[in-house]
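User: Sequence in, structure out. Go.
Assistant: Echoing your sequence, followed by the structure tokens.
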Amino acid sequence: MTFVYSFLADTILVIHALIVFFNLGALPAIWLGHFRGWPYARNFWFRMFHLALIAFIAGESLMGAICPLTTWEDQLRVKAGLDPRYQGTFVQHWVHWLIFYDADPRIFAIGYGVFFALVLATLFFVKPRRPNRWRRKVASSAS
């Protein structure tokens, strides 16, 4: 059973890393897409998901909360008989090295807050398109 817990912990770590890469990569991708005319850059649901995700991360950081994925991963590592905080497998070691840094939590809170402000500002400068069903309702009510 320890292998299963270790595997699940590594899976959560990889998902956590993918979320970090999505959050960081989406902002420059939105701007690049805006200048290149790519439709995804104005996709409403993509943009709202990105905003909600960074709002959650910034909010939990400002409250001093630990990410639920980190807590869950640590609990699974303990159940696997491993020490929490990334003392296990190859995947865990390298993904941890890529996305976690030792710094004062206030630095992260400020960084998340600034990044959230950039994402929010991007909503105004690169406006997402409203979903089709909303545009139809607005157009039909204007007639």
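User: And one key feature?
Assistant: The two ends are 64 Å apart (CA to CA).
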